Amino acid sequence: MASFTVRVELHYATEADYQTLHSAMERAGFSRFITSDDGIAYHLPLAEYNREGNLTRSQVLESAKAAANTTGKKYAVLVSETSGRTWIGLAVKAKTARAS
Predict the structure, then answer these.
(1) SS3 assignment, position 59
(2) In a domain, 35, yes or no
(3) What pLDDT digit, counting tens, does each position of 38-51 carry?
(4) Which residue range forms the structural domain that includes residue 59?
(5) Across residues 20-32, what is the average pLDDT?
(6) Which of 12, 16, 32, 51 sits CB 3.0–4.6 Å from 4 for a disulfide?
(7) Contact by Cβ (8 Å): 24, 70
(8) Cα–Cα distance between 40 and 93 in angstroms, integer?
(9) Contacts of residue 82, Cβ cutoff 8 Å, sequence gap at least 6
(10) Is residue 22 part of a domain?
(11) What is the rounded distance in angstroms from the CA atom of residue 34 to the CA atom of residue 17?
């Protein structure tokens, strides 16, 4: 399974435009979180997304473009396929309470 980091920059966009993008990217299978080797989830920087699957970079690009098109804004998309990632300073995703 391949891992991708995707950056989508909307030109002349508002916060509402980015909310539209976030929703569309989530529906397309992208996540705004990344998980470390020890299972901790971290928030990615604004407008960066994670995608994993048996996909090519071109397929991921087309999916991200379709999501970006829902905003009605001009945009730029960068797709990077990776075998590993290292980071510092990302916020830990809040843990949700488990039902007992």
Answers:
(1) helix
(2) yes
(3) 899 999 999 999 99
(4) 2-82
(5) 97
(6) 51
(7) yes
(8) 8
(9) 3, 4, 5
(10) yes
(11) 23
